[in-house]
Amino acid sequence: MDQTNRRMFLGALAAGGSLAAGGARAVEDGHASGADVAPDSTFLRTIPRKAGTAPAFTASLDGGPIKATSGGWAREITTHQLPIATGIAGAHIFLNAGGVREMHWHASAEWGYIIAGHCQATVIDEAGEMEVVNFGPGDTWYFPGGHAHAIQTLGTEPCHAILAFDDGLFGEHGTFGLTDWMSRIDPTLLRGTLNVPEATLAALPGGETYIIQGPVVPRDSVAARAERLLPPARSHRFALADAAACAEGAGSAMRVAPASAFPVSSGMTGFLVRLAPGAVHAPHWHTRANEWHYVVRGRTRVTLFAQDKHMGVAELGPGDCAYLPRACGHSVENIGAETAEIVGVHDSGLFDETLLATWLARVPRPMLAANLGVREQAVAGFPSVAQTFSRPVKDRT
User: Bridge-partner residues for 212, per DSSP?
Assistant: First the structure.
């Protein structure tokens, strides 16, 4: 027996310890084998769990203040209302039949998902190229920062959408509106710029119109059919609800729109999850991105393994949203009686999702057993293939 092992053996016996099946227990004096370090008899056995709960990570988007004008309304939620949401802000916009969200732009990129109704967007990019494109339920849009756009309802039904922006502080202060700007420009300068009569300028709005009520545009009208579509690689529209599912199981499915499928959406990945009653979107995390999501229908329970070892649990219903910071573990469970529909974004055009089950499935069994402090036989039955969606064991047939 060499001196190191002899020292470990005698030290263990002197401390009243025993020998483990795999060898001698390490001497508890703070020494490392073969290293000359100062001894210490005080030990921190484990890192203590932190007291308290995770910071609030959910809120009611649809319970917030409303900004209403003649043609519709909008609600928003930023880091001012949900302090943890530093990377993404959200909004809910509703356009009456005939409603027009005026031409505007902003420094932040905008993602949108049509919940109901139809609309037509006119978008102008930084090169001055225009796209006129129609959207219906299940479609998503992406307007990069600086791309000017306007949105007009098509048909006799209202249109409403869930929006997300790649800046947690983005709000109405960050929108550059056409009527707001033109109403503040010196009239002489504006008249010279546009070369129009003074009477024309006098008839323009005296301030921001935001969402203005206009005439109803039938969906079969010439205007509604006058799309001017850009090639798919540059289009601002993606049919998210019709995309192939990237994960399915337990009666549930997830669809995503990363930049690889929706090239203009270089800064965000939109997703749509339909979660069956009792199903769970298994514990996972995202290495590149924060997540912001909105519950369209159903009831969910979200569990967050947050920074500083805090755990948080919240229940959400229609109109509620959640923000899950980058790399924080989380899971989503449908606790209602109907299929839950969840839409949202990651603030990266590259989609990734690391499942806890994938990690456990791929780690060599001896390493996993040693990590958990159990015999290898105890982990032999762990699944070798991870599932994105599952059901509690008691519900399996």
Answer: 100
Task: Give helix then strand counts, H and E, for the chain.
Answer: 7, 26
> Which pTM was predicted?
0.88
Altogether, the residues listed in the chain come to a count of 397
DSSP 228: B
pLDDT above 90 (res 12): no
DSSP 26-81: PPSSSPPTT-----------SPPPPSS-PPP-EEESTTS--EEETTEEEEEE-TTT
The listed range with the strongest mean pLDDT (110-119, 192-201, 353-362) is 110-119
β-pair type (329-334, 280-285): antiparallel
Q: For 199-246, how does the pLDDT look when each residue is reduced to its tens digit (9 = 90+)?
A: 999 999 999 999 999 999 999 999 999 999 999 999 999 999 999 999
What does R_g of the chain's alpha carbons equal in angstroms?
28
**CA–CA separation, 126 and 190 (whole Å):** 22
Residue whose pair of structure tokens reads 């982990």 in the numeric block: 379
pLDDT at 1 over 90: no
Mean pLDDT of 34-57: 70
Could you give phi then psi for residue 242, rounded to 5 degrees?
-95, -5
By three-state DSSP, how is residue 92 classified? strand
Total Cβ atoms within 10 A of residue 161: 26
Q: Write the DSSP symbol of residue 24.
A: P
Q: Identify the weakest region by mean pLDDT among 40-54, 84-98, 262-276, 382-396.
A: 40-54
At 152, the amino acid letter reads Q
Token pair 């006119």 in the structure block, residue = 122
pLDDT in tens, 243-283: 999 999 999 999 999 999 999 999 999 999 999 999 999 99
- Residue among 57, 98, 59 nearest 75 (CA): 59
Whether the Cβ atoms of residue 164 and residue 292 lie closer than 8 Å to each other: yes
Instruction: Tell me which residue of 46, 2, 4, 1 sits closest to 27, measured CA to CA.
Output: 4
- Give the Cα separation of 372 and 354 in Å (integer): 20
Task: Return the bridge partners of 334, or none.
Answer: 300
**Measured CA distances, 330 to 18, 152, 221, 258 (Å):** 40, 37, 47, 21
Q: In Å, how far from its chain's centre is CA 72?
A: 25
Largest CA distance in the chain: 103
Helix (H) or strand (E) holding 357: helix 356-362
Nearest-CA neighbor of 309 among 51, 87, 58?
Answer: 51
Mean pLDDT for all residues in the chain = 90
